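Support request from a user on the community tier.

User writes: "When I paste my structure tokens into the form, the page sometimes reloads and wipes my input. The last time it worked, I copied everything first. Here is what I submitted, just in case something in the input itself triggers the reload:"
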């Protein structure tokens, strides 16, 4: 059974930093894609960033230059280093696992990030 578990969320002041982690288990493919999405209640999910096992990364426009995604392939762990956080970054952040970066099949429960001004 494939499972994803996020950690690292919390409350931080505007301008601060957080590092999110997503541990994947039960999946042994050598090629895959993992991504971060975020969602605010009542709104559609928003793409944050993705990385595949080739090292190709993508970022949403609102986080470019502030967030950095990375993947520890050996440990099946996805990271998101978030800096210069803004109140509008407040959301539930969750990771997704996919066969490719346009074909996700699993998601984690999420971790809450709150940025206070």
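"...and here is what came back when it finally went through:"
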């Amino acid at each position: 059974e494939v499972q994803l578990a996020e950690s690292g969320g919390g409350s931080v002041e505007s301008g601060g930093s957080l590092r999110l982690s997503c541990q994947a288990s039960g999946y042994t493919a050598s090629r895959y894609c993992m991504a971060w999405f975020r969602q605010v209640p009542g709104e559609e999910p928003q793409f944050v960033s993705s990385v595949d096992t080739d090292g190709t990364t993508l970022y949403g426009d609102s986080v470019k230059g502030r967030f950095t995604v990375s993947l520890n392939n050996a440990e099946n762990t996805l990271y998101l280093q978030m800096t210069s956080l803004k109140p509008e970054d407040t959301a539930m952040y969750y990771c997704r696992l996919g066969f490719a970066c346009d074909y996700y099949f699993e998601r984690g429960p999420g971790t809450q990030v709150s940025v206070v001004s």
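Agent notes: The reload is a front-end session timeout and is unrelated to the input. The chain has a mean pLDDT of 96. DSSP finds no helices and eleven strands in the chain. Escalated to web team.
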